[in-house]
Amino acid sequence: MKPAKWTSEANVIRESSGMMLPEYREENVFYYDQDEKWRKPVLTEEEQQEMFRRLRDSKAKAVEVCVRVYGEHETRNITGIVTGLDNYPGLLDQYLVKIEAKGDWQLFNFSDVIEVLKS
User: Fold this and answer.
1) d(Cα 115, Cα 67) in Å, to the nearest integer?
2) Which residues 6+ apart lie within 8 Å of 21 measured at CB?
């Protein structure tokens, strides 16, 4: 077993677990090595354009949609009517989307949208 390093870049979980039973140490190291962040799916340009079209239609026709939004640890579903699509010129993924439902509203980036479904 390697002696613990007491430097600023030492991994505290790995290096300070010398006093643990080996089976618990291995389990602990395995647990903290797992990437807890959920990876965002890569969407094609056609998929992005189709989702944007659905959002634009929701705004124009006041049709309710269900939008699935990416988050680092989980996704969330937002259902309502799109009331705002504000953009930064020339960048499709830099739109801000505003959805209203039941007197409340949500604001998020179009780049975080994973899926758009009609309700």
Assistant:
1) 6
2) none
Q: At which residue do the structure tokens 């309710």 appear?
A: 64
pLDDT in tens, the chain (119 residues): 555 545 444 455 555 555 667 777 777 666 665 555 567 888 999 999 999 999 999 999 999 999 999 987 788 999 999 999 887 766 655 788 999 988 899 999 898 999 999 87
**Inter-residue contact 86 to 95 (CB < 8 Å):** yes
Residues 53/13, Cβ–Cβ less than 8 Å: no
Bridge partners (DSSP) of residue 118 are 65
The whole-model pTM stands at 0.65
